[in-house]
Amino acid sequence: MSAEKVNQKDRNFLAVIGDEDSVTGLLLAGIGHVNQQQKRNFLVVDAKTPLATIEEQFVEFTKRKDIAIILINQHVAEDIRELIDGHNQAFPTVLEIPSKDHPYDPEKDSVLKRVRRLFGE
Q1: CA 70 to CA 35: how far, in whole Å?
Q2: 3-class secondary structure for the chain?
Q3: pTM
Q4: Sheet of strand 93-97: strand arrangement
Q5: Which of 44, 57, 108, 111 is in the most buried spot, having the most CB atoms within 10 Å?
Q6: Where located (predicted)?
């Protein structure tokens, strides 16, 4: 078995960066996890959360070997768009999700932008 397959197999968790309602809902659904180093797989973002904290948490999630998918509210993703667009690895996959107060805009979604580029649109 190759090292990459083992690496993919060990990615068991979702991570979430978002507003309180989104994170709470996902935690109630059971995605919450705290590892042995006391690192959580979620970050609640509000108006007082510094941009540097959001950026640091995103970078940390992308480096963790146990996270398969990062869910991020689209309005939060807009704040760190350069980091998200610069992330080109298959794992963890970054998916932008809507929030209660901010509707989803497919024109801003990084995944849809990449798909359009692949199809030459």
Answers
A1: 16
A2: CCHHHHHHHCCCEEEEEECHHHHHHHHHCCCCCECCCCCECEEECCCCCCHHHHHHHHHHHHHCCCEEEEEEEHHHHHHCHHHHHHCCCCCCEEEEECCCCCCCCHHHCHHHHHHHHHCCC
A3: 0.82
A4: 42-44, 13-18, 67-73, 93-97
A5: 57
A6: Vacuole membrane
Residue 82's domain comprises 3-118
Domain count, the chain: 1
17, with CB counted inside 10 A (0-12, 13-18, 19+), is buried
**pLDDT tens across 30-64, in order?**
988 888 888 899 999 999 999 999 999 999 999 99
Q: Among residues 74, 119, 80, which one has the least CA distance to residue 95?
A: 74
Say what the pLDDT of residue 106 is. 74
**Paired tokens of 115:** 């798909």
Q: Which residue type sits at 91?
A: F
**CATH, residue 82:** 3.40.50.10580
